[in-house]
Amino acid sequence: MKEQTITLKNKQNVDYPKECTFSKEDWEVLSKYWFPVAESREVTDKPMPIKLLDVNLVVYRTKHKVVVFRDLCVHRGTPLSMGWVEGDDIVCPYHGFRYGTDGKCTSIPAHPDAKISPRLCMSVFPVIERFGLVWTSLLGKEDNLPHFEAWEDDNFQQIVCPPFDIKGSAGRQMEGFLDVAHFAWVHTESFGDRNNAFVPRYQVDHTDYGLHVEYLSTVSNYPKGQQSRAPEDFKWLRVFDVYPPFGATLKVHFPNDGELWIMNAVCPISARETRLFVPIARNFDKDSPIEDVYAFNLQVFTEDSEMVENQKPEELPLDLQMEAHIMADRTSVAYRKLLKKMGLGAIYTS
Ligand code: FES
Ligand SMILES: [Fe+2]
After folding, report:
1. What kind of fold does domain 8-136 have according to CATH?
2. Rg of the chain's alpha carbons, rounded to an integer?
3. Which of 131, 149, 95 lies closest to 264 in space, CA to CA?
4. pLDDT at 38
5. In CA terms, which of 60, 122, 176, 222 is 20 to 30 Å from 325?
6. Does the domain at residues 149-341 carry the CATH identifier 3.40.50.300?
7. Beta pairing class for 127-130 and 133-136
8. Is 107 in the pocket of ligand 1 (CB under 6 A)?
9. Looking at the DSSP assignment, which residues form a beta bridge with residue 70?
10. What is the greatest pairwise CA distance in the chain?
11. pLDDT value at position 349?
């Protein structure tokens, strides 16, 4: 049989998705940044469908690396997440095409002798595995991963809370993480206190990566029932670092030099769906059950999500005239200005 060449005009770059929930302008800005898409421990040789900025992707692990492709076989559009991994290849379940980790098709079982065009290739996205998470980027142009020194520190225990899904926008969620006036109201069951609603003045500094905020108050970070562990006059320092568009860390200083680090790592699945990943590190209570950490954080996330899922408009208004601001909102006002400076629209859709 004569050798035949199987070719295809395949675009490597991902285009603005059909029925995208983001405006084209916002989507183009956001697609340059890195976002967490899965916990490292859930990425195995079983291909898993994920979604980022309305683009369907598949993530899986071979013996050598973690791979992220578009979840769409270039032959007939079958999701590769329905397939399986064999060695370093992923196999499409429809006609058995195989693709290597570089995206190139390595086998077409219907024509075993045909030469395969290098253009028969999946769109491959870059991957970073860090803080117990798999991060990817549609365009991979910016360096926006948060710094989280405690993750590498042996004096700290590292924990990744199970991902938490929110029917709301990433911008609203992020702003909630940075908000210090809601503790007394939203978190009354977990750690806040209605009688301690006052927000002392604090400062917001601009940095090369985003924002740095130090907030000193009497709001305890111990769960209800444990709050007597802190001396009565203890002042709680919370240090926020913001890595726009949707990354932030919070370091809470506990009594006796205790430190709790919390990362807010957000995947904007769509403009109305957000998956929250939360790597945590602590240098105290390291022997207490991890399930207690999961349970406490789940309670806090649930309290927060009740607000975020009901705010209107769903998107974060970057036009500062659209909502009222108080002194306690200094961080969120600075955050909104940053997003605007990044090129996101005034009627921002996430
Ligand atoms: S659709 Fe994937 S091999 Fe045909
Ligand atoms: Fe909160």
Report:
1. Rieske Iron-sulfur Protein (2.102.10)
2. 23
3. 131
4. 98
5. 222
6. no
7. antiparallel
8. no
9. 57
10. 86
11. 55
Give the residues of the chain that fall short of pLDDT 70: 1-13, 346-350
**Which residue, among 36, 39, 77, has the nearest Cα to 61 in the 3D structure?**
39
DSSP 8-class letter at 35: E
| Contact (Cβ atoms closer than 8 angstroms) between residue 168 and residue 274 | yes
The residue whose CA has the least distance to atom 4 of ligand 1 is 95
Euclidean distance between CA atoms 99 and 93, whole angstroms? 12
Domain residue limits, the chain:
8-136, 149-341
Compute how many other C-beta atoms are within 10 angstroms of the C-beta atom of residue 182. Answer: 16
What number does the ligand 1 atom closest to the CA of 83 have? 2
The first and second tokens of residue 31, run together, are 């697609």
70, 78, 82, 99, best to mutate for ligand 1 pocket (most atoms within 8 Å of CB)? 78
| Cα(95)–Cα(82) distance, integer angstroms | 12
Q: How far is the CA of 87 from the centre of ligand 1 (A)?
A: 19
142 and 32 in contact (C-beta within 8 Å)? Answer: yes
Contacts of 3 (CB under 8 A, 6+ apart): 113, 114, 115
Of 245, 189, 195, the closest CA to residue 219 belongs to 195
Q: DSSP label at 150? A: G
Per-residue model confidence (pLDDT) at position 347 = 63
> 115 — phi, psi (to 5°)?
-80, 135
- Is the distance from CB of 80 to CB of 90 less than 8 angstroms? yes
Residue with tokens 């209800």: 224
Pairwise CA distance, residues 133 & 111, whole Å = 39
Contact 280, 293 (CB under 8 A): yes
Q: Which two tokens stand for residue 209?
A: 């990566």
How long a stretch of residues is the chain?
350
Q: How far is CA 211 from CA 247, 249, 332, 333, in A?
A: 11, 11, 10, 11
Nearest to 159 by CA among 135, 183, 133, 134: 133
- Please list, residue by residue across 108-145, b when 16 or more beta carbons sit within 10 angstroms of its beta carbon and e when fewer do: beeeeeeebeeebbbbbbebeebbbbbbbbbeeeeebb
The whole-angstrom separation of Cα 35 and Cα 127 is 10
